[in-house]
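2024-03-11 09:14:02 INFO queue: dequeued item Pentatricopeptide repeat-containing protein, len=454
2024-03-11 09:14:02 INFO validating residues
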Amino acid sequence: MNNTRRVISSATARRVGRQLSEPAAPPGHGECLYRRLSGVKATGGSIRKMLNEYVMEGNVVLNYDLWRCLKELRKLRKNTVCDDYDVECVEIMEWMGVRKINYSLTDHARRLDLISKTKGIAAAENYMSNLPPSAKNKFSYGALLNCYCVETMEDKALVELFRKMEKSGFISNAFPFANLMTMYMKMGKSENVPVLVQGMIKRNVYPSTYVYNVLMQSYASLNDIPGVERVLAEIEILDESKCNWTIYSNLATIYMKAGLLEKATVALRKVECELKPGPREAYHFLLSLYAGIGQLSHVNRVWKTLNEVYPTCNNMSYLVILQALSKLDDFEGMRKCFKEWESSHSYHDIRFRNVVIGAYLRHGMDKEAKLLSEDTEKRFKGPFVKSREEFTFFFLESHRTDLALSYLDDNVFEAKDGGWHPPPSLVNAFLNCFEVEKDVPSAERLLNILKPFR
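2024-03-11 09:14:37 INFO prediction written
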């Protein structure tokens, strides 16, 4: 029997709250737990109640399995438009705390990060202050620093916490610097990034691949392409181990945004040279970037390679190829992929339909778009704001302002509980249309619809 992990067994009520040595998990044990956890949200149930029922049925809950479930639930969050999975993750961790399941050195950091996302910075700070001294380590401090950086709280991040971490000897790797660099990029202070990198080197902390990527982006935001290329040369000569496919995909993106399409193409070929084979994400980047520079033949070639490397194509891969083909106006190719996806996947994602609806509208096929939209509203619970935005722009461009206002009104009604705001480009499109047509009544109707956002 392996005694290195903690478990909870509930053959009796007394045993539920105690730490026990871990028995061997039955086949499919973790998978069964994950299926039940991931289904709680859809049924409107309680995580705590589900876990209690699970152990009272005589099942064993392993620390390892819970963390694996948390990891998978967070992946779901990344691939959906809803953040409820973060709330569920917090509830799982709270349940673990109540049941006295031991936390590792990094577990408090994970929980702190989730608390910040779901309950706010103040709650995260309170959690940190209540941790025992042994849990106030470089991981938990690093998580709090990341929270401050995400919220662009420069003074708290740099003046207070970073300096405190440095005095405590917690600045031992590139992560704290990477957080600060990302914060400055978000704040539009990209000139601070090279200074931070110099500070790293003075402290004998060597840049990670991520740090090099942000450094390249900082020079690009300053319109310093030679600076970007100097960083690349330095990596290739002095730190070749950090020069992976992400460096070249980042370089390709920079060249593409600068209008240097030939250089972008060369960088993308270097990405492909790094894949032997590579992760799905790398092929997704290639598909998107080749579409960005208008290279349909390369998109089709990379899609073929992706299917050869990963014969079972997942939802994300299909979404990326649909978006790429839509961007390139390969309508028939996109429609073929959409039908292929619908026939082979039981889990349907509303984003796929939004891509196709947008493509229909760009081709003036509003009847087909409407039929697909109506079918989508029958199959899904929403939100439908993205597809309605597409319809709103379409009807504005064709000067059917009544229909455009109707779709906008529907979006505002759906967003009454928050989560969506009309983009400035949409509001400006309405105002320009009304100004050209001198349509005062419609302008007044627009202002009335947008009252909740004043």
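2024-03-11 09:14:37 INFO annotate: The first helix runs from residue 13 to 16.
2024-03-11 09:14:38 INFO item closed
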